[in-house]
Design brief:
elongated; three-stranded antiparallel sheet; Rossmann fold; five-stranded parallel sheet; alpha/beta; 20 helices
Length: 434
């Protein structure tokens, strides 16, 4: 049974997605990707935050391109079926599917990790092309060349060992493995690689410099396919009556395309519609999904900004460099915000960062309670008492709290202007938001 070559797993997973009540048709991306098959631009790396539909698109591509089965019935009703090249690429390719988040059951060394993928590819190739069993090959690429066939590679979570800080001494070896397998090889018809972190650029470029990258900061081509658009979200809302579009917009909107169009967190939208309730569905699959993880690298530089953003303000900042795989922990204000944009914790447009929506606002409010935020944390933790004193008309208690705030050494809490006063009031009554 094949593990990675022409398996039916992507077909089965995409079929489940199509059958879902809240399915959104993103198949138009196939036309753009097919146009790059067997061209110099056939190497594509799309990095977006978790929960933004990367794996769903990958499963769709596997189901569409793979020649091992007939998926016409699955795609005939989708947008791609209306394009001129629909039939020309449907089920016409050998597809190699690699999920780099697989960890071996026995052995925890880098060599064990890589053996998992190398052995899977080798076994599947020899099973599909038994005439190669009598030959000796020095590498996987030699074996693939010997098939005299072309392959589409779809690689999920390419950055898994980077984002989970596994085998750091072998990061260069891993990039070299991908380069040797894919770069300038005649058997490569297309590579669709996805993850969260962009590819790290070294002083003279990257081992994977053949890829065109599309990220949260720079994506002029594919951004509408990752996240739900306004029209798509409104279409889904009409399938139920418990939640209004305004509620969904308040909770899960906040990201934007280059032309200013709104994008919604797709997983959160679907979860809310299924559960008939708006709440935070932000799932933490690792410490890098946590707001506080990044802020703690240099709270002194970002504390005032965070207070302003929790108050609903945007922060102006020019971010030129993207936080990428294998990069040292972020320390500067720019690096911290760049990393948080890459992970979807902040949105960025027109030179400004902001908290995207209510769902993420809750995560930032939790972070403000951490002791590292000093007096800000104390104020937030006391917000319930301030609210209670206000509701019970204990003016002296409220006045005492506000006096102590004004005497703090934090500039943002001096409330010498309207914006600072607004921030103080927001923090003092933060519990009222809940």
């Amino acid at each position: 049974m094949a593990i990675c070559l022409n398996t039916k797993s992507t077909y089965n997973l995409f079929q489940m997605l199509v059958n879902d009540t809240f399915f959104v048709d993103k198949s138009a991306i196939i036309e753009k990707l097919s146009a790059r098959i067997n061209t110099p631009n056939r190497y594509i790396c799309i990095t977006k935050p978790r929960r933004f539909g990367k794996t769903s698109v990958l499963n769709m591509l596997g189901a569409y391109y793979c020649k091992a089965y007939d998926s016409k019935v699955l795609f005939d009703g989708l947008k791609i079926a209306k394009t001129a090249a629909y039939a020309a690429h449907l089920n016409q390719y050998n597809v190699v599917h690699l999920s780099m988040n697989s960890i071996p059951d026995d052995g925890n060394a880098y060599e064990d990790y890589m053996k998992l993928f190398k052995n899977a590819i080798r076994r599947d190739i020899l099973e599909a092309y038994p005439q190669l069993k009598e030959q000796e090959f020095n590498s996987l690429s030699e074996m693939l060349v010997a098939t005299d066939k072309q392959f589409i590679f779809i690689i999920d979570e390419w950055d898994y060992i980077f984002s989970h800080e596994l085998y750091p001494e072998h990061y260069g070896d891993f990039l070299e493995f991908l380069r040797e397998l894919l770069k300038d090889k005649p058997y490569v018809a297309l590579v669709y690689m996805t993850g969260v972190l962009p590819i790290k650029k070294y002083s003279t470029g990257s081992a994977l410099n053949m890829f065109k990258e599309y990220t949260m900061l720079k994506d002029p081509s594919f951004e509408e396919y990752f996240g739900f658009t306004e029209d798509e979200t409104e279409m889904l809302c009409k399938k139920q009556t418990a939640l209004t579009m305004e509620e969904i917009r308040d909770w899960y909107n906040g990201y934007q395309t280059k032309d200013g169009s709104r994008l919604y967190n797709p997983r959160s939208v679907v979860c809310a519609l299924e559960d008939s309730t708006c709440q935070s569905y932000w799932t933490r699959t690792g410490k890098m999904d946590e707001v506080l993880f990044f802020l703690k690298y240099n709270i002194a530089q970002v504390r005032d900004d965070v207070v302003k953003m929790v108050n609903g303000n945007s922060i102006g900042i020019d971010i030129e460099e993207e936080y990428s795989a294998g990069q040292n922990p972020p320390n500067s204000r720019e690096d911290i915000y760049s990393a948080m944009i890459i992970y979807g914790l902040l949105s960025y447009s027109n030179g400004e960062v902001r908290i995207p929506n209510k769902e993420l606002m809750i995560e930032f409010q939790k972070a403000l309670k951490d002791d590292d935020f000093g007096y800000v944390a104390e104020l937030v933790r006391n917000s319930g008492e301030i609210l209670d004193a206000t509701l019970n008309k204990r003016g002296d208690t409220v006045a005492s709290y506000l006096h102590n705030i004004h005497n703090s050494e934090l500039p943002i809490l001096k409330y010498n202007d309207e914006n600072s006063l607004s921030c103080v009031v927001t923090l003092a009554y933060l519990s009222a938001r809940n």
